[in-house]
Structures are given as C-alpha cells and as structure tokens.
UniProtKB/TrEMBL annotation:
Organism: Deinococcus aerius
Interval of the full protein contained in this chain: 771 to 1059 of 1063
Protein name: Diguanylate cyclase/phosphodiesterase
Residue ranges constituting the EAL domain according to the UniProt record: 24-275
C-alpha cells in the first residue's frame, strides 16, 4: 500500500498514509544526491576479543542524517538504495572510505569489516572493484572482512560461488552476517567456504533467557570449530552475555557492552588506546609502537 502511494503521490489524501508517504518521497528524492555528494558517512564499531576486550577490528556502518528528517536508520535507506539501484555506488563508496580510514591507523594489524548487499556482491565486477580499492588504499587483503547475509548465496548459487572463489583468491575474508536467521546448513557451508560466522544478535540477546538461544549459539560455535573458522557474536549488551559466550567457547564479539558505533575520530582513539594497553600488558619485541 505504501509502495503504491510512492508511485501515485496524488493518492496521499488518505490521512493515515500521508506522513509516511511524504517521508518516503522525500527520502527517495534526496538519497541519490546524498550518495553522490558523500553525505553518507560511516560509524565504526569495535570488534573485540571477548576475554581481554582488546580491539581486533571495526565494522563500518553507514549513517545518513537527512537535513530535515534527521538521522535515517540504515535499515531504511539501505533498502531504499537497493530499490533505487544506488546500492552498488553506495557500497563502493563505503568500501573505499572504510579502507582509507583503516589505512591511516597506526599499527597495521587492524581488521576492517564492510557490509555488502546481495546486489553488489553478485555483480560480475565485484571482485575487481574490491581489488582496485585494496590497491588504491594500500589495504592488505587479509585485513578486509566482507559481511554478507545468507540470502546472497540463496539468490544466485552459481554466481555467489564464483565470486566467493575470486575473493578468496584475492585473500579477502568473507563473513556470513546474521548467521542462524537464514537457510544455512552444513551442506551450505561446505558449498560456500567462508572465513567466519557472525552469530545474530537475537541469539545473543536470548542467552540466559531461553534455552533455545543458548542451544543455537552452542551449535554455531561447535560448527565453526569443526570447520576451523572464526565466529563473531553480535549485540553483546551485558557482562552476563559476555561470560556466557566465553563459557561456550566464543572468542570475538561486538556490542554496546564494549562500545557503540563511533565517529571516525573517536574510533581511531579507541584503537590507539587499545593498542597501547596491549603493548603494556604483553611487553616484548615489537610492542613499542
Ligand atoms: P548488521 O550488519 O548486522 O550490523 C549490526 C547492527 O547492530 C548495527 O545496526 C549496529 O549498530 C547494531 N548493534 C551493534 N551492537 C549492538 C548492541 O549491543 N545492541 C543493539 N541493539 N544493536 C547493536 P545499524 O548500524 O543500525 O545497521 C543495521 C543494518 O544495516 C546492518 O546490520 C547492515 O545490515 C545494514 N548496513 C549498515 N551499513 C551498511 C552498508 O554500508 N552497506 C550495507 N549493504 N548494509 C549496511
Ligand atoms: Mg554486518
Ligand atoms: Mg550483523
Ligand atoms: Mg544483525
């Protein structure tokens, strides 16, 4: 219904639809300019070692503050960008900016995680685009972690397998985002050999609350161990959840307990502080940055 209103603006006389339709039209009109002008910026959320809190990398998350409507949730404008055919350009801009930001950090061993939409991932030129950005920004391929959801692999199995192969040849890492919410199975992971599974926030939230969630988390951790791949638990908000994950054998995580997504400069400072702390804790050759 709302969709219809978008293409038939004269139908917005129905009062209940009015506000939503006006917002839609406005976002639709302004998103292309925001993408083209670079008005979409990035926040960076630390990904940490659960045991020590040491930062291992950051997930880049797109942010858009509309001049009139204020902050627009990424769930909303990413979906709109997909619908309007802007996601490939937007995704590439995000990738370039995130890699450039990471390249300017001291140390050289920080990971950078970038979300990739199915449409973008499945484009035949994607691996070439990634290689170009790596070269342009001087990013070591192993530092780049691309996060894709299970739907990417379901939409076009052949294409996804081909592109995954090319990315792995490049040395880039691929994570399955929101793992556990889609169609994954053992066979699926055999067919699409990825580097890590991100355990969806819904299961982390349920830890200690319902038995099903702990069961899912335990199973995913065991699965990853069997496959010899990493896991990252999303949405850790409490110390109890952190301890529960550690107890089940989890190693990496992210969430408000450690840090919210941060503006560029604050994220950079968090990285420097974390690196310095590690250097003090583990003195030895190479620790003096
Ligand atoms: P995601 O990739 O699963 O990202 C994690 C989301 O969980 C982020 O929401 C993050 O802010 C939020 N989060 C992290 N820790 C916590 C926590 O402890 N509690 C709670 N309640 N939430 C937490 P955000 O930034 O709103 O992004 C939402 C989704 O939008 C992302 O989910 C991702 O799918 C998509 N997205 C964001 N940036 C991009 C982008 O550049 N490209 C694409 N294709 N998608 C993006
Ligand atoms: Mg993600
Ligand atoms: Mg996620
Ligand atoms: Mg998620």
């Amino acid at each position: 219904r709302a969709k219809r209103a978008r293409h038939l603006p004269y139908a917005v006389f129905e009062p209940a639809m009015h506000e939503g339709a006006v917002r839609q039209l406005r976002l639709e009109a302004d998103l292309p300019g925001a993408v083209a002008s670079g008005a979409i910026h990035l926040a960076y959320q630390p990904i940490v070692e659960l045991a020590s809190g040491r930062i291992r990398g950051f997930e880049a998350l797109a942010r858009w503050t509309h001049p009139v409507l204020g902050p627009v949730p990424p769930g909303e404008f990413i979906a709109l960008a997909e619908e309007l055919g802007l996601i490939v350009n937007l995704g590439l801009a995000v990738l370039r900016r995130a890699c450039a930001w990471r390249a300017a950090l001291p140390g050289g061993d920080c990971g950078i995680h970038v979300n990739v939409s199915p449409r973008q991932f499945l484009l035949d030129s994607f691996a070439d685009d990634v290689r170009a950005v790596l070269e342009e920004t001087g990013t070591p391929p192993g530092a780049l972690h691309l996060e894709v959801t299970e739907t990417t692999f379901v939409e076009d199995r052949e294409g996804a397998a081909r592109i995954l192969g090319r990315l792995r040849d490049l040395g880039v890492r691929v994570h399955i985002d929101d793992f556990g919410t889609g169609h994954s199975s053992l066979g699926f992971l055999h067919r699409f050999p990825v580097d890590a599974l991100k355990i969806d926030r819904s299961f982390v939230t349920g830890l200690g609350e319902d038995r099903a969630s702990s069961g899912v988390v335990e199973t995913v951790l065991a699965l990853a161990r069997t496959l010899g791949i990493e896991t990252v638990a999303e949405g850790i908000e409490t110390e109890a959840q952190r301890l529960h994950l550690l107890y089940l054998g989890g190693t990496l995580g992210q969430g408000y307990l450690f840090s919210r997504p941060l503006p560029e400069e604050a994220a950079r400072e968090a990285w420097i502080t974390s690196s310095a702390r590690t250097a003090c804790l583990i003195p030895g050759p190479g620790s003096g940055r």
